[in-house]
Inverse folding.
C-alpha cells in the first residue's frame, strides 16, 4: 500500500465515531407517515328532493315525524300527510304520533291563511284519488301535487317467505302506488320513494317497476335522516315493546326521484362530476 494512503487511514481510524462527518441525506429519503397531514374530503350537503313552496302528498306515514320535520325544519306549508292505519290503530302502534299530529294541526289553525296542512287516516297507497277513506277522497283526487313521497314502503309481515315478500311489495304495493300517484302530479311533478339498500330490497327492482308504468329515475341519492331533524324511522308493525332499539334504523337507504318518461332531468337535479372531473348526465346517482 502506498505510504500516503496508509497515513490517511491511520488518521481516520483515530477520530472518534461521533465526530466523523455524517453522510448527506438523500433527497429521496421517505419521511415517517406521521409527518403527513390528513386530508379530509368535504362533506356533501344532503340532497333535498323538494322545495318549501311545493305542494306535497306524503303516503304511508308512520308516526308523522317525517311530516313534522318537513314543516318545522324545511318550512313546508302545503302538506297532505296520510297513513294506512286508522286513527285508533295509529295511536296504539305509535303513541308518540299524537304529539306530532297536534303540532301540525295547531300550526295549520294558527296560520291558516298561509299554511295548508291536512292529516288523513286509513289511506291505501294503491288507491290514491278514490273515495274516503282508502283513497283520500276529494282532497287527494284533485291532484296538483309537485311531489308525492313514500318513505320505506312495505306491506308488513304478511309472510316470512322472502320470495313472497318481494312479490307482495312489487306487484301489490309499488306498482299500484306508481299508477295511482302518477295521475296526481303536476306536469313537472315527481314521485319520491326511499327504500333500504341491499337484499331483500334490491330484489324489488324498483327502477323496472316504475319503467313499466311510464316513469323513469331522474336521479337517486343516499338518504340522510339527519337532514330531517326529529325524524325517526317507524316500523310498519309499530314500536318495539319495552322501547328497545331496532337494528334496522341505522341501515343505509337510498332515495329515488321518479319522473314521467321524456320529461328530462328534474329541475332540482344538478349535473354531477365524474371521476375525471367532467359533468355527466349518463347516471342518475348523485352519490
Amino acid at each position: 500500500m502506498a505510504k500516503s494512503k496508509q497515513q490517511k487511514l491511520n488518521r481516520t481510524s483515530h477520530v472518534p465515531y461521533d465526530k466523523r462527518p455524517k453522510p448527506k441525506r438523500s433527497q429521496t429519503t421517505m419521511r415517517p407517515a406521521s409527518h403527513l397531514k390528513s386530508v379530509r374530503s368535504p362533506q356533501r350537503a344532503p340532497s333535498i328532493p323538494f322545495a318549501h313552496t311545493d305542494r306535497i302528498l306524503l303516503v304511508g306515514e308512520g308516526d308523522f315525524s317525517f311530516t313534522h320535520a318537513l314543516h318545522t325544519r324545511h318550512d313546508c306549508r302545503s302538506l297532505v300527510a296520510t297513513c294506512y292505519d286508522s286513527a285508533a290503530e295509529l295511536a296504539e302502534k305509535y303513541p308518540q304520533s299524537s304529539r306530532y299530529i297536534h303540532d301540525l294541526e295547531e300550526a295549520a289553525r294558527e296560520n291558516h291563511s298561509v299554511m295548508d296542512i291536512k292529516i288523513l287516516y286509513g289511506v291505501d297507497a294503491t288507491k290514491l284519488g278514490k273515495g274516503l277513506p282508502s283513497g283520500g277522497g276529494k282532497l287527494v283526487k284533485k291532484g296538483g301535487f309537485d311531489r308525492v313521497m313514500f318513505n320505506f314502503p312495505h306491506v308488513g309481515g304478511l309472510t316470512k317467505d322472502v320470495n313472497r315478500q318481494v312479490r307482495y311489495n312489487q306487484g301489490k304495493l309499488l306498482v299500484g302506488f306508481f299508477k295511482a300517484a302518477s295521475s296526481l302530479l303536476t306536469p313537472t311533478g315527481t314521485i319520491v320513494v326511499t327504500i333500504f339498500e341491499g337484499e331483500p330490497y334490491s330484489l324489488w327492482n324498483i327502477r323496472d317497476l316504475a319503467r313499466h308504468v311510464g316513469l323513469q329515475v331522474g336521479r337517486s341519492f343516499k338518504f340522510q335522516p339527519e337532514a330531517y331533524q326529529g325524524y325517526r324511522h317507524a316500523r310498519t308493525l309499530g314500536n318495539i315493546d319495552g322501547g328497545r332499539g331496532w337494528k334496522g334504523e341505522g341501515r343505509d337507504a337510498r332515495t329515488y326521484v321518479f319522473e314521467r318518461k321524456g320529461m328530462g332531468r328534474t329541475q332540482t337535479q344538478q349535473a354531477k362530476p365524474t371521476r375525471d372531473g367532467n359533468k355527466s348526465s349518463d347516471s342518475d346517482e348523485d352519490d
